[in-house]
Amino acid sequence: MKNPLDTFKKWFILSFLALALPGIALWGQEGDDAGGGDDAGGDAGGGGSAAEAAVTSGGSAQPAAAASGSIESNPVVTLVRAGLNFQSAKSIKISDLIKIASAGGSITKLISIAKAIEAKTYTADDLVFTLDLGLDIDDAEKTAKASKEAKEGGDSDYLDKLSKDIKSGYDLKDILDGKTTGIDNTLLDSALALTSIEDLKQSTRDVVAGSTDFTNFQTYLESAVTFANTVLTDRTITSASDFDSIPEVSVASLTASPQTLEFIRLLGKYGAIGSDASALSDTLASAFFGTDFASSTKMGTSLLSFLGSNTSGHVGQLKTSLGTRTLPSGVQDSTVLQVAMSNVTLAPGANITVGASGSTSTIDVSDVLTKANSNEERKVAILGAAKDLTIAGDVTFTNTNTVEDHALVIGAADDLQLRGQDKDYVENEKVTLTYTGSNLGLGSNDTMRLINVDIKTGGNLAIGTLDQLYVGSGSIKDGGDQGQTHGINYSTTNGTSKFEVGVEDNVYLYANNLISINGLEFGSGMDDIYMDAITIDLSNVTFPQNSDVMLRSRDGSMNFGATDRAVGSVNFIQNVKYGATAIESAGQFNGAAGHWDSSELTLPNGKAAIKVRGF
After folding, report:
1. Interatomic CA distance for residues 237 and 356, integer angstroms
2. First-to-final CA distance of the chain
3. CA distance to 49, 226, 249, 367, 500, per residue, from 580 (Å)
4. 412: part of which helix (H) or strand (E)?
5. Is 305:299 a contact under the CB 8 Å cutoff?
6. Is the whole model's pTM more than 0.90, yes or no?
7. Is 18 exposed, middle or buried (CB count within 10 Å of its CB: 0-12, 13-18, 19+)?
8. d(CA 326, CA 319)
9. pLDDT tens digits along 32-86
10. Rounded alpha-carbon distances, angstroms, from residue 277 to 262, 264, 316, 611
11. Per residue in 270-282, is it b (16+ CB within 10 Å) or e — as a string?
């Protein structure tokens, strides 16, 4: 970024030059006739002429050693006196000298540039051309030199292409490093014209700047931009018609289109794959394509080839692509994760708002998640935000199909928010999210806060975040870490949050860093409750009788009471129960750190009801 003081200085110099221009032109034309008189010398400034001052920084022209007046007022003479060949000095137009001097800021810089022009390091015309593009003097010199080298190599259009690249927003260093070489600017402009979303335009430029091979690139890029423009649109959904109006994206709709890699990279540069954006998008791409994913042999890969045939194939990519932990084999092998990719659909948006504050919205998804006649027909529908997804009020997703042959997933590549980021989470404002079908999933890249939230689904419930997960009752306060509450003031005076699932169904909670629960009730009849985080904090939680509880932390250790809370542990802070039995001490468990089993509390089959494990 240019220094604002430098810009201000140049404005000042240019203003001074505008006043001096008539005098400079006059002195240059009249030559010796302009000098000799006391008036001319006096008007010109006596010990240092106005013309000479005009081609310095404007502050301190030194008195000439020779005669003053009109001769030294000619900047060409100034350059000759500095040792420049007269013919070389004479070949540079006065107007160009003025422009170069104003950009350079000193007579010393002007002389240095003039000598570079004499040495044919670059031409004055090319230097002035680059200055007119808005470059500072140093970058203009580099660019003018690069232009000369390009012309010598047969590229006579170098500066025209450079001008288009700069106007398109490319970084000059990337241009000079050749990162845009090979791009047809006309076609690039046509790709940029396919969207009015400024962030997407910048993402398009970023993708090009990071590319190394441009075989068929424009075709792929334009296809990707067209699709991304549809995906990256803000949406508000309060009814079935709103949901139905979202263009549905399926694997089948994209398999014939050679845009997969380019689209993924656009999403990453846009910030649609989490807050670390481009780094994560590159990681994802290289995980599937290899480290040479930018090469022509990897471009145009169909989406089906990229995604594979079954969702279970992506579980192994979680650790390498997203930095998650490797999940236990029992979770990875769950049939919930085994759905044909051809049966996965996405209702996309940039920022998505579902429901409205103070009202209940009903959204029917029956047409999307229809009954399956076989395991091969099981379906997943994703309502996915490339940035934030906000559930603004009570929302009920309905489905006439209640068979557990499908899943509805609500996800955000950034934040999944209840009520909205700026709204206080107060005790008497509860939000209810209901799915009358079967399996429901919630996912986000950033921290998720389910405070004063009731969630009910007819099948399994899965909630995951790549950061921290807060669940319970209370209010969220601004301002950082506050002991084990981490910025959340919990209270259970008006009841607790509640998760309800189908009979003999399961609840899965995953957070890369922290699961903090204070005030959570589980519905009756559920089977498994699984929690996985580096640290798990539990307060005011009652696990249902006969539920199989797995608590997985980094160290697999246990601590009891607020004062003994530890990072990497499962912390039973206060009022944690299994059925009617309080969980209060390590004496209720057998084992050691990394592998604890409850001794008093058992399942009907005789196995431990609560298990604490390390990664």
Report:
1. 9
2. 46
3. 98, 58, 48, 43, 19
4. strand 406-412
5. no
6. no
7. exposed
8. 6
9. 333 344 443 333 333 333 333 434 333 333 333 333 333 345 667 767 776 777 7
10. 14, 11, 21, 37
11. bbbbbeebbebbb
